[in-house]
Amino acid sequence: MADQEEEDLRMALRMSMQNSPPEPKRSKPRDAAGAPVVSPEESRALQRELMAAAAEKRMRAAKIASPSKAIDRSPCKSTDVAKKDKDLGPKGGNMGKELSSDEANQLFSM
C-alpha cells in the first residue's frame, strides 16, 4: 500500500518536471497575427453597433410576441352609458326634502 502511494508521488513529480506549455486562455484569440489591427475607437464603435442591432432584434421579437389588443372605442357605447346614468336620477336617496327629527325617529323605530 505504501509502495503504491510512493510510486504515485514519484510519477506526479516526474510529470510536474516535464516542460509543457500552459494551456492557452480561452478569452484570448488563438492567433491574432493574421487579423487586422483595429483601433480602440473602431472596436468601441463596432461593439455599439452590435449592441444596437441586438436591442433592435429584441424589440422586434417583443413586438411580435405581444401584439396590442384591438380595443373597440366606438362613441355610441360611451353615450349609452352616460344616458343610463342620467336616467337613474340623483344618487344617495337625497330627494330634496329634509325630515324633521320626529319623523326620523318614527321611521327609525319602525
TrEMBL record:
Superkingdom assignment: Eukaryota
InterPro entries for this protein: UIM_dom
Protein name: Uncharacterized protein
Region described as Disordered: 1-44, 63-110
Bias-annotated ranges (Basic and acidic residues): 70-89
